[in-house]
Amino acid sequence: MVKKGKISSWNDDKGFGFITPDSGEDRIFAHIKAFKYQARRPEVNRLVTYSLSKDKQGRICAAEVVMSAAPVIEKTSRSNGNITVFLAGLFLLIVAICGLLGRVPFWVSALYLTMSLATFALYAFDKSAAQKGAWRTSESTLHLFSLFGGWPGALVAQQKLRHKSKKESFREVFWGTVVLNFCAFVLLTIPGAAKVIKALLTNIG
Question: In sequence order, what DSSP letters do the residues of 188-200 get, joined into one string?
Fold first, then answer.
């Protein structure tokens, strides 16, 4: 089955790179030997068609890759990504300020920072696993980390690591976790709300 995508990264010295499918799935490894009928070297942002195959280790890779005549020019993706990273950092700053001013308990600020770092690391691990064909982190786990305060780290990972940034079904659920978590944070800024939530959690436990 012929698939479409574009070359999202390429190491010409080593002769390999990765193709990002148009379908929004994870990137596919592509070796220079997989490119057919090419008079030029592969380059980033070049549109391609390809089929799926497996290497000697059984990992999925691209085969019979054919490049288009012209590269894709992305005008706004980088600027939009920078804005997203800025907003994630701004939110963490606001959380920290609220903690210092006593608007939310100190543990809330620590939780957001810890969960954001952990979520970023989880995205990095999952991307590395996808490239190596190794065991993957489930999407439900990624969403759970985002729901419990790790979504700023997830936003940064999606933009900087280019992972889980185009799959629409994943992003719809992800933004749902962001909205729910943000509502919970706003609730915590209401005087006395933290004690009520803590008491409820204690009773549930």
Answer: HTSTTHHHHHHHH
**Contact between residue 67 and residue 40 where contact means Cβ atoms under 8 Å apart:** yes
Please classify residue 132 by burial: count the beta carbons closer than 10 Å to its beta carbon, then call 0-12 exposed, 13-18 middle and 19+ buried: exposed
Q: How many domains does the chain have?
A: 2
Pair 35, 78: CB distance under 8 Å: no
CA 48 to chain centre: 23
- Domain hosting 24: range is 3-71
Could you say which DSSP state residue 33 is in?
A: G
- Looking at the fold, whether 48 and 85 belong to one and the same domain comes out as no
pTM of the model as a whole:
0.60
Cβ atoms 31, 6 nearer than 8 A: no
pLDDT tens, the chain, 205 aa long = 889 999 999 888 788 999 999 988 889 999 999 987 766 778 888 899 999 999 888 899 999 999 886 655 555 555 566 788 889 999 999 999 988 988 888 888 899 999 999 999 999 998 888 767 678 889 999 999 999 999 999 999 998 888 887 778 888 999 999 999 999 898 888 776 656 666 666 776 5
**188: amino acid identity, one letter:** L
**Phi then psi dihedrals of residue 35, to 5 deg:** -85, 125
Q: What would the two tokens of residue 95 be?
A: 């959380």
The enclosing domain of 44 has a CATH number of: 2.40.50.140
